Automatic annotation (TrEMBL), chain A:
Membrane-traversing stretches: 21-38, 77-101, 113-134, 146-163, 196-222, 242-265
GO biological process, one term: transmembrane transport
Stated name of the protein: Carbohydrate ABC transporter permease
Stated family: Belongs to the binding-protein-dependent transport system permease family.
Localization (cell): Cell membrane
Taxonomic lineage of the native organism: Bacteria, Bacillati, Actinomycetota, Actinomycetes, Kitasatosporales
Main location as per UniProt: membrane
Topology versus the membrane: Multi-pass membrane protein
SUPFAM superfamilies named among the record's database cross-references: MetI-like
Record's keyword terms, sorted: Cell membrane, Membrane, Transmembrane, Transmembrane helix, Transport
Coiled-coil boundaries: none
Residue span(s) of domain ABC transmembrane type-1: 78-267
TrEMBL record, chain B:
Location of the protein in the cell: Cell membrane
Top-level taxonomic group: Bacteria
PROSITE patterns from the UniProt entry: ABC_TM1 (PS50928)
Keywords: Cell membrane, Membrane, Transmembrane, Transmembrane helix, Transport
Name the record gives this protein: Sugar ABC transporter permease
Species of the source: Streptomyces acidicola
Residue ranges constituting the ABC transmembrane type-1 domain according to the UniProt record: 89-324
Lineage of the organism: Bacteria, Bacillati, Actinomycetota, Actinomycetes, Kitasatosporales
Compositional bias segments (type: Low complexity): 10-19
Alphabetical list of Gene3D superfamilies matching this protein: MetI-like
Renumbered residue ranges of the record's region Disordered: 1-23
GO CC terms, sorted: plasma membrane
Transmembrane feature ranges: 31-51, 89-114, 126-147, 196-226, 247-268, 307-327
BP-aspect Gene Ontology terms: transmembrane transport
Family assignment from sequence similarity: Belongs to the binding-protein-dependent transport system permease family.
């Protein structure tokens, strides 16, 4: 009997073979650009431009990374990017949760206005507000500053919306108990409601963080000093200033992608579910 | 649940009303609510709502570095009549039509296999999703190297297997239909020749970027389809492909529709990939709406005209977003 069970299992596994082969092929094809990025980053210039191309670096040149870092301050770019991405992530969690809580739970003067603002902002893509926001930033005297990079994106309508949905679906009994204990509204938010929507906070943080991390156009429009460059902007500047040194360009690209991939590798379940949830709400 | 649904009276509101509430208490609740909302009100108000209004106002002026005066609808009339705007509309359409359906068609069998065949092999999901995590600026850089104009670039090397001459992919404005019709000696004029070679490279980069996202969204839809349905079809003697086509896809159609709309929005808004790969060229053959807007603003310093293009961009995305709301409300009803 145990023998037939083993055969069954083997048969089932064999049945999955085409699926395995297919998906392995898909994954291989999908990874080709990343493989090409890493191998080109490791080739000396002559090898990187050779015809036909070498399929792996025959003379690995790790000095490319040192050289790329010498030519442009990627550590500074990285620090700028982390700073702006963390600030917008935290901003969206704090400001978004407060507003979402107010929308879901309270009746207050200004509720209608907030709802209208959220609705209007969800509909208009950020790109379409870049030109007027550029003028606003300039008039506020924030051009070429961290404020310009962060302030407009400190809270997104989508974050408020996600929090409103989660707070709305909290069981009433939990909050009622706290209210009977004489909790203030803020205390109730901080100690009872906010901890209960942890997954939403993660989603909001991941989405805003990724959005800022990937932003290129906005930093391009509102900053000009090299010290304020974020990674994406620094990379495009490196491309135009660095000329034809593909190996150095790929080394710089590897440096800009590595933190994201490391982060993804350590928390992939969280990121995948966060992005899926963000898309589906 | 949709953002458009009216605020529902929660049981909590009823409870509060049942207890006699003093005016002071109510005023304090009023104030707390407002305090909670103030930061968002200010930030959304200035950088989103006011910005949208201001954008429309700017589009009615000839705003440039020299100053601004009211010109009414002149920008709109000139823009709609201009070749560059018509070009950018068609290019945007090419980009959207050339990426969204392909991505979804590729994602369907992958998601199906991941859900029903290889559910235990989480590594596949991670690998398929990885391109989406790579910042688009970086991935566009890599695609630019792969499609480099040197003889030894990966793309030109692969061409050489078929005995073809190396191409200058990213500065090639030839329409792909003209490439296909070349042996017949036929040449189609302008945009009739289809998307340029350069734009097609950008599309490839976009598909590579979006595939993992599409798979994850489809997987969440598949998770809602019960095993019994597939089992029943199998009992009736349906093969795996038949089940996918006649059972799973119809049940999944709300998710597919939703995915299509959200991918449309992403594609219309895409900037980084095109900016890094082609910068809108050659000869405007990859200049989408958002690329045109940035050029008018950033290079030509025509803020008024840029704002006009921005309004068109906003209107098209807003329309798509409304469709998306409508679908997500529908979706809930299916479940």
């Amino acid at each position: 009997m145990s023998e037939s069970r083993t055969t069954n299992r083997l048969l089932r596994r064999a049945g999955n073979l085409p699926a395995h082969l297919g998906l392995a092929a898909v994954c291989l094809v999908l990874l080709v650009p990343l493989y090409w990025m890493v191998t080109t980053a490791l080739k000396p210039l002559q090898e990187a431009l050779a015809t036909p191309p070498t399929l792996w670096p025959h003379h690995p040149a790790f000095s490319n990374f040192v050289e790329a870092l010498r030519q442009a301050p990627f550590a500074r770019y990285l620090a700028n990017t982390v700073l702006t991405a963390v600030l917008t992530g935290v901003g969206n969690v704090v400001i978004g949760s407060l507003a979402g809580y107010a929308l879901a739970r309270g009746r207050f003067r200004g509720r209608g206005a907030l709802l209208a603002f959220v609705l209007a902002s969800v509909m208009v893509p950020a790109e379409a507000t870049f030109i007027p926001n550029y003028v606003t930033i300039r008039d506020l005297g924030w051009y070429d500053s961290y404020l310009a990079l962060v302030m407009p994106w400190l809270v997104g309508a989508f974050s408020v919306f996600l929090y409103r949905q989660s707070f709305h679906s909290l069981p009433e009994s939990l909050l009622e108990a706290a209210r009977l204990d004489g909790c203030s509204e803020f205390r109730m938010f901080r100690s009872v409601a906010f901890p209960l929507v942890r997954t939403t906070s993660l989603t909001v943080f991941v989405l805003s963080f990724v959005w800022t991390w990937n932003a290129l156009l906005w930093p391009l429009l509102v900053t000009s000093r090299p010290e304020l460059r974020v990674l994406q902007l620094g990379l495009t500047a490196f491309q135009t200033e660095g000329g034809v040194y593909v190996n150095l360009l790929m080394a710089a690209t590897v440096l800009s992608v590595a933190p994201v991939l490391v982060l993804f590798a350590t928390s992939q379940r969280l990121v995948i579910s966060g992005i899926a949830e963000g898309a589906l709400k | 649940m949709s953002i458009l649904s009216p605020p529902q009276a929660s049981p909590h509101a009823a409870a509060v009303e049942a207890a006699p509430e003093t005016r002071r208490q109510r005023r304090r609740g009023n104030l707390t609510g407002l305090l909670f909302a103030v930061p968002a009100l200010i930030l959304l108000g200035v950088f989103h709502v006011w910005a949208s209004v201001f954008n429309v106002a700017m589009s009615l002026t000839d705003w440039s570095l020299g100053g601004a005066s009211f010109v009414g609808l002149r920008n709109y009339l000139e823009l709609v009549g201009s070749a560059e705007f018509q070009n950018s509309l068609v290019v945007t359409l090419f980009f959207v039509v050339g990426t969204v359906p392909v991505t979804i068609l590729l994602a369907l069998p992958i998601a199906y296999a991941l859900q029903y065949r290889l559910a235990k092999f989480h590594l596949y999901r991670v690998l398929v999703f990885t391109p989406y995590v790579v910042p688009t600026v970086a991935s566009a850089m890599v695609w630019g190297v792969i499609f480099g104009s040197n003889q030894g670039s990966l793309a030109n090397w692969i061409l050489s297997w078929f005995g073809a001459d190396p191409r200058q992919w990213l500065v090639d404005g030839t329409g792909v239909l003209n490439l296909l019709l070349e042996p017949l000696g036929v040449r189609l004029p302008g945009l009739w020749a289809g998307p340029s070679v350069a734009l097609c490279v950008a599309m490839l980069a976009q598909i590579w970027h979006m595939l993992g996202f599409a798979v994850i969204v489809l997987l969440s839809g598949l998770a809602g389809i019960g095993e019994e349905v597939r089992e029943a079809a199998r009992m009736d003697g349906a093969g795996e492909f038949r089940i996918l086509r006649s059972v799973v896809v119809p049940l999944l159609s709300p998710t597919i529709l939703f995915l299509a709309v959200i991918s449309l929005i992403f594609a219309v808004r895409e900037f980084n990939i095109i900016y890094v790969l082609t910068g809108g060229g050659p000869q405007g053959s990859s200049e989408t709406l958002s690329m045109l807007m940035v050029r008018q603003f950033y290079e030509d310093n025509e803020l008024g005209r840029g704002a006009t293009t921005g309004t068109f961009l906003a209107l098209s995305v807003a329309a798509l977003t409304l469709v998306q709301f409508w679908i997500s409300r529908k979706r809930v009803h299916y479940e």
